[in-house]
Amino acid sequence: MTFDDFQLHPDVADGVHGMGYTKPSPIQEQAIPAALAGKDLIACAQTGTGKTAAYLLPVLDFIAYERPAHTTALILCPTRELAKQIDEQVEGFGYHVGASSIAIYGGGKSENWEQQKRALTQGADIIIATPGRLIAHMQLGYVKLDQLDFLILDEADKMLDMGFSDDIIQIVNHLPTKRQTLLFSATMPNKIREFSKKILHEPEEIRLAVSKPAENINQQMYMVYDTMKLALLEHLIGELDVQSMILFTSRKMNVGPIERALRKKGLNVRGITSDRTQEEREQVMRDFKNKQFQILVATDVMSRGIDVSELSHVVNFDLPRDAEDYVHRIGRTARAGTSGMAITFVSDHDQDAVVKIEKLIERELEKKPTPEEIGPSPEFDPKKYRGRGASGPGGRGGKSSPFGGGGRSGSRPERPASSAPKPAIAVAEGAEAPAVAGETDEQKKRRKKRRRGPKPEGATSGGIEATASTTTESPAGEAAPSVDGSTDEAAKRRRKRGGRNRSGRGPKPEGSSVAAEATATSE
Ligand code: ADP
Ligand code: MG
Questions:
Q1: pLDDT number for residue 197
Q2: I need a surface site. Which of 109, 324, 380, 502 has the fewest CB within 10 A?
Q3: Range of the structural domain that residue 491 is part of
Q4: Distance of CA 150 from the midpoint of ligand 1 (Å)
Q5: Are residues 9 and 150 in the same domain?
Q6: Does 114 share its domain with 174?
Q7: Which of 517, 512, 504 is CA-nearest to residue 127?
């Protein structure tokens, strides 16, 4: 399969080409046709599988054909970094479409607030926003989303983890009910499923199986009480040849003590939590990628924003919340044929999660006991400990932190046992739409699907005309379906119309994507 098979608008196809994409990834193969057909979508695929293009291309295709004069798409995402990345991708893929976008994120009013306000007042084809910041602007009345065609939730799991669900619902309440909603997520805990029921309409569900961890990752599990974890870490670290390691912990309060303990061992280590400012975090990440220091200690909440592979070691000081997260994390080691090691600490109350991980990776892992010189070791007996984790009655593991204080540990949502990926083939149904000369079946389907909302009459005929006229410009020089009466003139007309509709909007305001953001603090 190639991108040509999607029959994207030629301007979008040019953008894809310009970005150097030739073959769609599996999630793109499945999600793009479903989205083009106008379906609501829940798409779950692990990090790095190409979810961004999976939703951007259908949106840009819509913009290229319809040339709406209003904001077409709202993309909600959890962090400033992601908003920026998405904005850059829109610029890349949408270059030939001329789609405008603005990224809205940030904390205090001082931080580019006025620039964002101006940009929002002018409007754009695509708004990319972190939920909290968007609400702050919406409350002032100049954000116009009343004709929105697409709502996209990117990294939905992370947004819910960060406590954005109320904000998202509040935003959704201001959107037209006739819209297409696409939800993308790396994991699919039950709370996503529940949440999606509130905002999606009969969604197509696409779930790609998490690929198994590479064989050359040495996966080790240690049974250890929470109070002994730090001692065990100190013990192990002396024996390892650490070139580049990330250590994940579920508690912010653990980061400092871990940093200090490792530093005492002569290791070059730095921590990253949501308490740090955005600039500090970016600096730490840059330094880590440039191998300025050996060990990065990060919290779970930070973990998905960390895009580093080629590590020699990953340590799960606490078990990740979802089995998929375990696979994502350890996959950061052992790239390109090198071997890597993943060390996971399993406490007495984490045992259900281990069972889930083993089910997912279809492999049982050896559990080593805490060495005697360090202290007693919990036994591995998931039946005995069932329900002692956060997912069981009482909701907490009941163990104190190794660094004092209670707090969350091992809290993770349950997932249904049967989570087999469901093939998603979007089929357009409904009454025959009026024929458009030369239109391919695919385009007709798409057009029918899209005529759902009470759109102004003119928009409809415009869309059809555009569809017909542009099939002559099929990408990659392939023979285009013949279009009766369609000429270069028609294509020009379409472009003009596009220009007129969008006039008064002007170019993307300078600095619209340079604001700062309040990162989530819900660790
Ligand atoms: P996800 O959102 O699933 O984590 P991204 O959309 O960020 O993944 O894509 C991960 C990386 O893969 C990016 O660098 C992106 O440009 C690249 N990529 C995605 N799809 C393709 C493709 N079809 N061909 C080539 N590169 C791709
Ligand atoms: Mg992504």
A1: 93
A2: 109
A3: 470-505
A4: 21
A5: yes
A6: yes
A7: 512
